[in-house]
Amino acid sequence: MEHNQQPTQFQEMDSGEKRLNELGYKQELRREMTLFKTLAISFSTMTLFTGITPLYGSSLQYAGPASLVWGWVVVSFFTCFVGVAMAEICSSFPTTGSLYFWAAHLAGPKWGPFSSWCCAWLETIGLIAGIGTQAYAGSQTLQSIILLSTGTNKDGGYFAPKWLFLCMYVSLTLIWAVLNTFALEVIAFIDIISIWWQVIGGLVIVIMLPLVAMTTKSAAYVFTSFEMGVDSTGVSSKPYAVILSFLVSQYSLYGYDAAAHLTEETKGADKNGPISILSSIGIIAVFGWAYILALTFSIKDFSYLYDPSNETAGAFVPAQILYDAFHGRYHNSAGAIVLLFVIWGSFFFGGLSITTSAARVV
């Protein structure tokens, strides 16, 4: 009598799950994320435009273009060291808790619980605040799009009042919350769209804006000019003004820990998590500097950017730079509106990714 026996197949344990077992940590989430999907979410959390665009005007006003341009280089340089350290720890402790879990283990049995508690709450507060800033800046961009689409500030365009601005703000946060109720595969798919949206859109803006602008600033102005707006900022100390101008870089180069929050859902997380962290920092550092240079070279009139009577009501400096460039060459604002929509998309995707990270922490 023949017995047809089916060979038993053993599935090799994922390297990330194996590392969790070594730590005595039980695997709770399904591993569905590939390296590219994890990178997409991490990149979308940092986002190319969302840190630079809302703070560009204020940072430029504190100490001028040179401080803004070189500040990005300095902050990017030191952020790389933070990223390398975080990637190394992520490889050793590939857990969804990430930062507060790491703090608990690295601080030792005496200080571990307190360190973990502090880290968890600080991170939670930071992520919740990050959702708010994304929604605010996204609403600000949408406000400029509406203004330029209905005319300009000088031609009777519609400048969204505070109540409508608040409605846009709340709507964005609710949309992100609803989308995060779907499976992670849906979020990952949206973030794959996000990474291509920002890379392609970033290339278009970085290349097109200086080419379209009829008047551009010299390299000497961009790389060596320090201009302090004492009357508008109230800051008369040069060192302090330079430090404040670094805020745009510090705000932009954060969020790369998003990859760490997804390690329990990432295949080969002990390797792919760190790769996602370092890759996100590298891409944003290069593209972000190029975006800052494109905006700064394309400035037409520095003081006019902040004039409340200009075409964008002095409310959003990047929008005025885009308007000056396209209106100067084509005598309409269509190009500026399209590029502002690309930037707004970055805020939408970024807010969604930060909400995803916040949900994992909570």
Structural features, described:
The protein has one domain: Up-down Bundle (Amino acid/polyamine transporter I). It has 16 helices and no strands. It has helices at residues 15-22, 35-46, 52-63, 65-92, 99-106, 108-149, 162-179, 184-212, 219-224, 230-233, 238-245, 247-252, 258-261, 269-297, 317-330, 334-361. Mean pLDDT is 86; it is low at 5-10.
Counted up, domains total 1
What is the CATH class?
Mainly Alpha
Strand content: under 5%
Distance between the termini: 60 Å
Categorize the overall geometry. globular
Report on the biggest sheet.
none
Alpha-beta classification: mainly alpha
Low-confidence stretches: 5-10
Element order: H for helix, E for strand: HHHHHHHHHHHHHHHH
Subcellular location: Membrane
Transmembrane segments: 35-57, 69-90, 163-189, 195-213, 277-299, 334-354
Membrane topology: Multi-pass membrane protein
Protein name: Amino acid permease
Summary, kept brief:
It is a multi-pass membrane protein. The protein is mostly helical.
Element layout with pairings:
Blueprint: H1 15-22, H2 35-46, H3 52-63, H4 65-92, H5 99-106, H6 108-149, H7 162-179, H8 184-212, H9 219-224, H10 230-233, H11 238-245, H12 247-252, H13 258-261, H14 269-297, H15 317-330, H16 334-361
Annotation keywords:
globular, 0% strand, 71% helix, 362 residues, 16 helices, mainly alpha
